[in-house]
Amino acid sequence: MGALDGIKVLDLSRVLAGPYGTQILADHGAEVWKVEIPGKGDDTRAFGPPFQNGESAYFMSVNRNKRSITINMKSNDGIEIIKNLLLKADVLIENFRPGTLDKFGLDADSALKMNPRLIYCSVSGFGQTGPWSRKPGYDLAIQGMGGIMSLTGEPDGPPTKVGTSIADIISGIYAAQGILLALVARNKTGRGQKIDISMLDGQISLLTYQAGIYFAEGKSPMRKGNQHPTICPYETFKTKDGYLNLAVGNDKLWLSFCELINRPDLKSDERFTTNPKRVACRNILFPILSEIFSTRSTAEWISLLEKAGIPAGPIFTVEEVLEHEQTKAREMVVAMEHPKAGRIRLTGIPIKLSDTPGKIKTPPPVAGQHTEEILRNVLGYSKEKIEELRKSGAI
């Protein structure tokens, strides 16, 4: 049994933010009806290369455990299908630009009138309110506008995006979280509600202590490469054959670290005796430690640091982390058969529940794979009606 067994989700979202959120729900048992464009599907079906037998690796990474139905939203019959599904759904999620669905009578207020128990989740670049609410939102632009890029990269280099689509992904996580909160509330009140997820809000929420620094000092924190703004040493060092990350998070660890590197003199050096002093004198300390780390290989240093209980780690490539024994032990890579792509591998489920664990039951669907099944089993449409809808271009 999944934690969300019995929950039905009408998924009108596309690309990444919404689909990532609905994949979380689907992994834990929700029945997700993914609405796609006839003859085209989700935009990400064309994102690539790479493709596996014509199926986009990008699309497959965020759409497992869902059922695909193709509906033409420019067709009156198509809109009627969506409204009929809305009546059967517990959740509707969409990531159109605010106002787009109003003309179809599928805006939040209209949807809640039709189904007062519906959880209606909207994901957009800037939310449903504010002067930027009607602006389109894209991950790269939001990363820049949310402050994250100003903090990422070397001090003398350009602003740098995060290596994955963090604005989209965080929005998807918050959408799933908001839906779960709303479902809990519905159990108490019997009523659905609107959820307003802004990609920009999500990025601002990630600023945490960086925002705290600004609030305390009145000036923006700037790029510091891989160093931490308030802890030292807590950064990346070059070794004899590569790099490692070191996280000396408190003064007790600092004392142990000084013994490990055979520099007891650093313990009594007044410039480094406390974390605030080390942060203030980082430009002095970093060259000293860099020289020391250059004398051994990454593997040697990691072994020594781990034995001493000092947090440290190598910097893996995507291949190295996905093929690592720890990743496999946690079932964070799962292999399965896809009807067109053949044997595929997907990342696993990061939320581990003891009694109602999530499961990867079905591969990402082929576009429209479940159209007839959903129309017949969920809405009770006859074979003849389905054929008429197909001929008219509604599905």
Could you characterize what this model shows?
By secondary structure, the protein is α/β, with parallel strands linked by helices. It has helices at 17-27, 57-60, 76-88, 108-114, 139-145, 166-189, 199-205, 208-217, 251-260, 265-268, 275-280, 282-293, 298-307, 318-322, 325-329, 371-377, 383-392; strands at residues 8-11, 31-36, 51-52, 55-56, 66-70, 91-94, 119-124, 193-198, 234-238, 243-247, 312-314, 333-338, 342-347. It has 2 domains: 8-205 and 325-392, Crotonobetainyl-coa:carnitine coa-transferase, domain 1 (Rossmann fold, 3-Layer(aba) Sandwich); 234-316, formyl-coa transferase, domain 3 (2-Layer Sandwich), CATH 3.30.1540. The chain contains 17 helices and 13 strands. The strands form 4 sheets. The chain has a 6-stranded parallel beta sheet with strand order 5-2-1-6-7-8, sandwiched between helices. Strands 9-10-11 form a 3-stranded antiparallel beta sheet, with helices on one face. The longest helix is centred in the middle third of the chain and has 24 residues, at 166-189. The protein starts with 7 loop residues before the first strand and ends with a helix. The relative contact order is 0.14.
